[in-house]
Design brief:
349 residues, alpha/beta, 6-stranded mixed sheet, 5-stranded mixed sheet, 18% strand
Amino acid sequence: MEKKILTRRDFLKVAGLTALGAVTACTPFHPEVVPTLERTGSPPPVVPTLEPTGSPLPEGKKRVLRIAHMTDFHVQPEGAAPDGMRHALRHALAQEDPPEIIFNTGDSIMDSMDISDKAAVEAQWEVFTSILNSESSLPIVHAIGNHDVWGWRASASDPAIKNDPLYGKGMAIEKLGLTNRYYSFDRAGWHFVVLDSTHLPNEGSKKPCTGQLDEEQWQWFVTDIDGIAMTTNIPVCILSHIPIVAACEYFDGPNEESGNWVVPGGYIHIDARRFRDYFVQTPSVRLCLSGHTHQHEVLDYLGVRYLTDGAVSGYMWEGPYMDFPPAYVMVNLYDDGTSDSLFMPYDKV
């Protein structure tokens, strides 16, 4: 069957974003220490059956934290998104071995990069926060996704929105109850660092964003991790929307058509080599969690596990994406710095 390629404009029409209206809190996790990507493709004609994958509780070590990693909700008032988000949360919380906390690595709402209408963007956030409040009392940790950034592309045709204090990442910070776009905290014997990985495209990019850290954030990041490494040996987990490393992104689009592999800088961190070199010198970093790809992958490289987890929304609530159905991932963290995970499809389109 011939593939259907959706442009961003076509997708927004399908998703109903042009018809969003105004709608007049979540309970974010407040740590003690706080300092657009375009996709093309279509669901396959046959939805694969993917069973949860992972390993049973290992012997000889203690689990210290169980996480529901729920990313890429892409919620909007219309369509399947509201009921789908409710179903995903209920599915996770009803597990026989339920999570203690939720990690959301971004793209909480359907899209705000392309929309200048502030009320339309706020309507999406209202749906996300109201469902989260009504369905879960668990603490939740949020990272900012590229689709959570208001108006970066819309400002080309409506530059006046740049004057709004919530333009860019300001609205996401406010709606998610954050005090900064990046931060760190300690919990259950682990140190967690939440990064802001979405930045404006560089000169070589054809995508609406680039995965990387700005220099200010990088210096903060290194100082934060070095401080942990110098004073304690507790393991470190990093959260980012865009993956630092993800092999699955080689297959998302015709990235080899030039005769060489060319993976867009909006798909994985363009500064991944910088992370790689730093991690070699910093063995305390053990796990990196991300979303963005709408695919699931576990990649172990030089002592660091890169866990890129599937989307709650699947293919933007239109079915599976790249053979991965709507899902979340259960992550177990242990006292020895190791982790394992379960991929959890929840049978919702």
